């Protein structure tokens, strides 16, 4: 199951036969993109049948943009009618929730910079998408270990590096960004 999910572009972490929290994120994303009930729950018979009989990743059903699913803690980058990539994210933790909203990329900040709100919080390749909440962005963090399997940021969406670099390079100003779901 893990090898097949990983080969289809759903990141599972180590392919070792253990359904870890990262593998559950991949399963959650698989369920969503295949029209199944979305959850972070464990492996089911329906999951096994669906994954093992798949020959390719499903086509995107949403318009081009970036979609952050807080239930699965994954980001989908959709270009054209293709899901370009699926990556792990960490959204806002308790008291610092990332709002469920739709916006558009209005500012891009390449490379590293320190957060204007939090000391010693470095952001990489930031994509700001809510003009009325200018401190919220999609960004890479100093180290990938800050992208947890649970909500742990201060309202932003932390994205794995180097994936954020690719997303940053491929995302023009005006691109739709939608955050949805509940952890």
Protein topology:
Blueprint (H helix, E strand, L loop, with lengths): L1 H6 L13 H13 L11 H9 L11 E5 L4 E6 L2 E9 L11 E3 L2 E8 L7 E7 L8 E5 L15 E3 L3 H8 L5 E5 L3
Parallel strand pairs: 1-9, 7-8
Antiparallel strand pairs: 1-2, 2-3, 3-8, 4-9, 5-6, 6-7
Can you tag this structure with a few keywords?
183 residues, alpha+beta, 9-stranded mixed sheet, 20% helix, 28% strand
Notes on the structure:
This protein has a nine-stranded mixed β-sheet. With 183 residues, the protein is an alpha+beta fold. The longest helix has 13 residues. The protein contains four helices and nine strands, in the order H-H-H-E-E-E-E-E-E-E-E-H-E. The mean pLDDT is 94. Helix content is 20%, strand content 28%.
Record the strand order, biggest sheet: 4-9-1-2-3-8-7-6-5
- SS-based class: alpha+beta
Which strand-content bin applies to the residues? Answer: 25-35%
Tally of individual helices:
4
Please state the CA-atom Rg, rounded to the nearest Å: 16 Å
- Note the run of SSEs as H and E: HHHEEEEEEEEHE
Largest sheet: 9 strands, mixed
- Provide the helix percentage: 10-25%
Tell the overall outline: globular
Unreliable residue stretches: none
Overall residue-averaged pLDDT value: 94
Short description:
With 183 residues, this protein is α+β, with helices and mostly antiparallel strands.
